[in-house]
Structure formats: C-alpha cells, structure tokens
Amino acid sequence: MTSPRIAIAGAGIGGLTCARVLQLHGFEHVAVFERESSPDARQQGGTIDLHADSGQEAVRAAGLFDEWRALARFEGQEQREVDHATAELVEHQPPEGDFRPEIDRGQLRDLLLGSLAPGTVQWGRGVGSARPGEVTFLDGSTAAFDLVIGADGAWSRVRPALSPAVPRYTGVLFVETRHDGDEALLTLTGQGTMVAADEGLMLWAQRNSGDHVRAYACLRADEDWKPSNAELMDLFAGWHPSLRAFLEGELIHRPLYSLPVPHTWEHTPGLTLLGDAAHLQPPLGVGANLAMQDAAELALAIAEHGVRDGVPAYESVMLPRGVSFAERTNPALLEMVGERPIRV
Fold this sequence. Notes:
By secondary structure, the chain is an alpha/beta fold. It is 32% helix and 26% strand. The model has no long low-confidence stretch (mean pLDDT 96).
C-alpha cells in the first residue's frame, strides 16, 4: 500500500508533533511547509506548561517523553500572587507534582525538529491557500496531496477552505516586556509565574530558562492602541515601584484574538485543521496543549484508520473539545481582565 502524501502547513509545535507521530507510524511522504526562512528566523514564544492529560500525552505519542523530562522545569509550576500596592506575597502555590511543568517553547520546538527525518520541513515555502487535494504556495506554485493539514495558527491560510470564520479581537491587550538576569525581577517572579491585579489591570510575569523573565501588562484597550512605556507607567501609577519595573524596556504589543464560538465545519475529504487554526482562543494555558493533543490524536487516527476514515474520526472528537474549552476561556479572559473604572 502506498503511503499517502500529507502536507502540513506550519512548523509550530502542533504541526511538528503531527509530523513526528506520523513518521513514527511509518508514513514516509509527510512534508511540513513553513513560510519563515529558517528555524532561527524569529525568536519563539516564552515558556509553556505541558499538562499531564494532553501535552504530555502528545510527547509520549511522539516518543520523546524522556527527552522532554530532561528539559522540563518542574520548579516552574510555582505560582505567586502579590499585592499590587506593596508587592508583598498574598498567595503562594509551591511547585508540587508533575502535572504541568514548564519548558521554553523554543526548546520544545527544537526537540521536535531534531526528531524528524531530514528534509521534512521545507523552510521559506509558505502555504498561501489550499483546497481538497492541492496546496498553492505563496510563490504561486502548486502541489497535490492526499491530505492537507492546516497547523498554521491564528491567521491560517488553510482555514478558508473549510470555514468562513476569521479571528475577532477580544478587547484585551497584552503588552510584553523581556528582562535578562535582573535579580530583583527574578526574585519577585519566583521559579514560575507571578501575578498582581487591581481594577482592570493585571501584571503577569513568567520565568523562562537562563534567568530570563517575560512580563505582560494586561488591560482592556482599543485594538490599534500601542501604549508607550510612559503611558503604561501612568496607568500603573498606584502600583509598587518594584512591579512597575517590569514595564521598562522594549514593548511588544499583543492584541488578543479568538475565533467565534462555536467554530465547526462540515467534514471535507482531504482537508483538516489543528491547534489555533481550528480553535483560536485566549492564552490561558490550554492553547499549546490542545494543539499538541490535536496533532497526536490526528496522526494516531490516520495510523489506525487511514486518511479517509481517520480524519473524520479525529474531527468528531477535536471539534467539540475545542468548543468546550473556548466557551470557558473567552469569558475567563474578560473576567480576569475587567473594565477599568472611569476616573472623574
């Protein structure tokens, strides 16, 4: 029996997990197409926690569990809440067990990349659009496949072939800053995550490997507003100086988007989606885990049932699961980052 030709759009952790599991099960004609020119074309996102019942199960399916454990930061499960005005600790969850240890996204991606057959990822060859049985690349060329998998994130180029849905702005803006080796900020952050909140403003900091901290000022804002450092300092004027120090440095503005809920589609032979392409939702600890769970379950369904029957079997589980999480995470984001009171 000839191995089916499978195209995966996007070399994020979801697409790479799917490719790895497919190759483990003997699928020889798997290609991952990525518009970025190389693995190092841009810095990958910060730290992610892999949950025992989803992300970790996907790592097991990929045959990389021991390698992942060697990189995982179990101490990163620590959670700290501090008072916004005094910076004093008000709640603490020590790192216990192994349900959701942290790993840098870049480290996880490199682990997956290193596990693939040489030449699996075609860098600098982005997918521009797709239809059943065919991919059109950004340079206008085309290629035929038995299955096209959209693992290309929020602004997926594959999704329009299945669904007219487009991401919508949630009304919440995250403004990211990055800090290396700052002992005061490392102490406040602890080994894992620190959070402080007051009247519609939230500050969230996460420790990455190598004494690197990424912090996020979280607030309701217009979609196109890009506050400066000075404007952020004004918003957080009543906060403790040690917390306002997280707002210094280069700013990266990240308006948050989600897909309409529920987001589903009628099964179309030769096409499917996984991860954010299928169920984009707020970054509240489930996105990466769902993407990897989708990827592993899709690959395993294809291995067991073939492309024709495996894809609809996967979608019958993935779609309601994605809806269920989105129905919870979208309201949770707005509850977490409330409206700021009007000052008169």
